[in-house]
Amino acid sequence: MINMECWNRENRRTRTWRLTGFGALIRENYEYFSLPLGLFLFLFIWKTASGFYPSFILPSPGEVWGRWQEFYRQRLFFHHFSATFLEAFGGFCLAAAIALPLSYVLAGNPFLEKIFTPYIVGMQAVPIIALAPLLVIWFGFGITSKVLVAALAAFFPILTNGVVGFRETDPRFREMMAIMGAGRKTIFWKLEIPSALPVLFGGLKMGMTLSVIGAVVGEFAGAGRGLGYLVNSARGNFDTPLIFVALLLLALLGIGFYLFLSGFEYLAVPWKRRQKG
Amino acid sequence: MPVPVIDVKEVTLSFNSEPARATPPELAGVNMQIYEGEIVSLVGPSGCGKSTLLRLICGVLPPTKGRIKVYGKKAVPGWSGLGFVPQDALLFPWRTVLANVRLPLEIKAGGKKRLEELNEKAREALRLANLEGAEEKYPHQLSGGMKQRAALARGLVTGSRILLLDEPFAALDDITRTQLQLELLNLHSRMGSTILLVTHNIFEAVFLSSRVVVMGEKPGRILGEVKVDLDYPRDLRIMGTPEYGRKVGEVQALLEKAWGDD
Question: Is the Cβ of B93 closer than 8 Å to some Cβ of chain A?
Answer without folding.
Answer: yes
